[in-house]
Amino acid sequence: MDNLAAPVGINDSSDDATAASPSVRPDRPVSLRDVAKLAQVSVATVSMVLNDNPRISRATHMHVQRIIDKVGYRPNRLAQSLSSKYTQVIAIIIPALRHAFADAYFGEVISGVCDRAGKLGYKVILEQAKPDYIKSQQHVEIFERRYVDGVVCMGVNDRHHFLSEFADRRYPAMVVDNYFPQWGLDHVVCDYRAGTEQAMNYLLQLGHRKIGLIYAAPEIRTARDKIEVYEEKLRANGQEPLATLRADGKFTEAGGAEAAEAILARHPDVTALFAANDKMAIGALHYLSRKRIKVPEQISIVGFDDMQQSAFANPSLTTVHLPLYEVGQLACERLVERIRGKPDRVAELLPTHLVVRESTAMAAGRVTA
Amino acid sequence: MDNLAAPVGINDSSDDATAASPSVRPDRPVSLRDVAKLAQVSVATVSMVLNDNPRISRATHMHVQRIIDKVGYRPNRLAQSLSSKYTQVIAIIIPALRHAFADAYFGEVISGVCDRAGKLGYKVILEQAKPDYIKSQQHVEIFERRYVDGVVCMGVNDRHHFLSEFADRRYPAMVVDNYFPQWGLDHVVCDYRAGTEQAMNYLLQLGHRKIGLIYAAPEIRTARDKIEVYEEKLRANGQEPLATLRADGKFTEAGGAEAAEAILARHPDVTALFAANDKMAIGALHYLSRKRIKVPEQISIVGFDDMQQSAFANPSLTTVHLPLYEVGQLACERLVERIRGKPDRVAELLPTHLVVRESTAMAAGRVTA
DNA sequence: ACTGCGAGGTAAACTGTTTTAACTGATTCG
DNA sequence: CGAATCAGTTAAAACAGTTTACCTCGCAGT
Known about the structure:
2 copies of one chain form a homodimer. Chain A is an alpha/beta fold.
């Protein structure tokens, strides 16, 4: 057997009678120094072998590598990061919504980020940006204290003023599904304008003219985009986008139900409702079904996001599909590029598409224009 | 050589004259050594101030603290961890289900873990245990390379053999919502047996006897618990738990729909369906509604988990509430205790309760027993 | 005056890497 | 034949903290 297997004879002096008893020594993990000693080379050589430095000869490389494999050496990443200045970790910053991760929307994006990060050799830490997290400047602290090399910011809105601190590009940051013209932050977003157009065009095509809007979170730039395009589309079809035709659904099922109720109370003659996300659409669906209003026969509903469960709503939901997983992947990829020195600004726009299901039909008592 | 923006140049004139080193350093962040120099004490002293070591006098402590605040010093965590042996990071390991984080179930638990971890001063990294992640022993590597001090394992089943490597308790690990008698791993779980009893008792009380079961993932111990209790309850009420009365719904909406179809095809006379999670229950609901079978008039449905959207299903779903957020919190807390040296085995059981909504009613053509 | 002691502080060793400048031989060139 | 080049390796200096063993007072006890 290999009596070399006692890798960490911490002092050479220690080789008493027991030649190779791997479990006798104080169980300190094997270090670069131990490997160097065993391989009879310097620590610098071992380090270079590890990093595939071409200055090391083929022969030495193989010799050292064999020892490394034999003793199962694993470089201590803390030490590596300490001297290399790179932590190989990125953070995902999520706002402090109660139970944030339970949201399928964030889940998709996170999945994308994690998958890509793993492939690029990065670990991902999760940060919830509660008010006192921001107040204590944690989002900067994770950089200063070398927790991370970069951050992906999700679910942020105009009131999240802390983002301005990333405007100077001193710390790599990537915003997902929102953008900030005033600070010029790097971002990766779905094409919400195009998505809204797809939904509205479809409804208009079906003959709907009186279309209610269940919006939410106008403090999010991309959410405002939806509202704006909705208005543009109505106007282009000779309809005034009345304020009474819309209500805030707060991105929740309950909010969506209330918004539907409010809109219908003011305009019993709407033939379609467009919700800015699927959760609200499902809430609206729920409300209508209680009121025995038939969807889509009496009212059509279109959602936004294409969550998994939307296909199983009752009736299944027509909605705009968002490539959230891909957004996550791309955000991560671009972030890592920036960390590695690429200076370009990032402003990616990913395409959406309409998914037609059962919640939409021709406008009642009308023919297609 | 740029003498602009020397790290400590931020401070006011007074110190500059005295101790501010003439050494014009580049824009390196301020280190313990810089603080020591400015405060005219040794680095050891500053370190001890940082760690509230009682050997430091009140006066010195305050003096040093002032300098620290003034220059905005932030200890480098990599260096701290390197010498202290603790990384203050834990990992959440999630199986490789496609788009895992998009699942509200995991989301809830993750939320709980993150919140508690933050309070305890720990960061959380996210790891997806894909097959090659396990094959390359990444789950051990994150310990050996000092990425983390401990792990929380979620969504694991009997086939996840890698868990056996945590059986020796060399590395702190906590299993969530599953348990492994063979390896005696620490775990925090919901009381699935009691939860199932609550659901079954309720159905039986409503007069149901022919109850179909939409189960899933029998390779998960806690999922088998549900099946077992279902059988026990039927038997206790004089019913043979026929194999044809149940079908695997794979924890998905689509699977739930198919399972409902299969059970009804074999037993058109079932009066209730019990689904092992809400997603499958919603899938079943969807199937029944397509078939124009009225819920709860003709068939009652009970779910499990109490996901947010279950309240907005159509009809809203009677289900067993699981304290997933609390499970996450507790798992994190116990894990940190173990990291900090508490040797006790952990085996926590958290209570569930039934949430009655609209998807259940008295069994058709029967009176309560 | 002399020892003993403890409080408060410091120098130096230590954590485990990367990196740089310097050092060998051996080969090639003038 | 001596100098220049070069490939391969090494010692030592970072990196930024923690920890330990030792030092230096001031003061109480004898």
